[in-house]
Amino acid sequence: MDNATITAIATGLLVVVGIAQIGILTSQNRQTRLALVSEYWKRWHNSKDYWGRIIFVGRELDEYYQVLNQKELRELCDLLKEVRSDAPTIWALESIRVVSGILGDVSMRILQGQLDVSDAYPIFGTSLLRHSLPLRKLLDSSYQDRHFDPGISESHKEVRRELQHWLIYHNGLRRRCLILLDLLWAEAVRLEDLPPQDIESAAEAKKQTGSRNRSRLFREALRLNGLFRFFFAWQLSRFLLHAEYKSIWNWNGISKKRLKNLDSTWTKHLLQKYD
Question: Whole-model pTM?
Answer without folding.
Answer: 0.86
